[in-house]
Known about the structure:
homodimer, 110 residues, mainly alpha, 8 helices, disordered C terminus
Amino acid sequence: MVLFRRLLGEVLRARRVEQGRTLRQLCADARVSLGYMSEIERGRKEASSELLAAMCSALDVPLSEILSEVSDAVALEEAAMAVRLTPVELGSERLAAQAPGNGDVVASAA
Amino acid sequence: MVLFRRLLGEVLRARRVEQGRTLRQLCADARVSLGYMSEIERGRKEASSELLAAMCSALDVPLSEILSEVSDAVALEEAAMAVRLTPVELGSERLAAQAPGNGDVVASAA
């Protein structure tokens, strides 16, 4: 299952790091709790819509841009999952090498 | 402030209605509470990542597609807000007609 909060956390963290800012600095600017935001970046807590807006404002990035990036990251994982579910049909050598058994085993483990 | 949960609710609702399904049917398929989902469609509650995944699965729509639609809807609202904040510079007749005073009044009210 692709979880929104995990990829949202990754996108938010990447943007912050790109700007060379620490979590502490960003949280002070956005007026959000450091502990809460740390959990969000690691995909462990859901971000409220208000927090998301505050973070986008502090990062000076439109919310639509963050969501578009998350959508792209989700699409990549969905595609990777689709491949894992049909390794036999796609004849992927890499996946066959990773799988201890046959395609059915991989599909049921996914 | 553009709130993610409001536009997410609108997108999810539009998809359900497009498919001619009632909230009750969809919630039964997704195994989520009718009351909770009703609040989400109206943008009153945040959807957990697990619920979002369950709804996408029940709607048979990839999460990436839902997020992309929400991103587009958010972008439209961001653009509309940007216009409201600078009605004088953009010379929007429609906005000028709506505003009782000048541009500064509109900006401070937004």
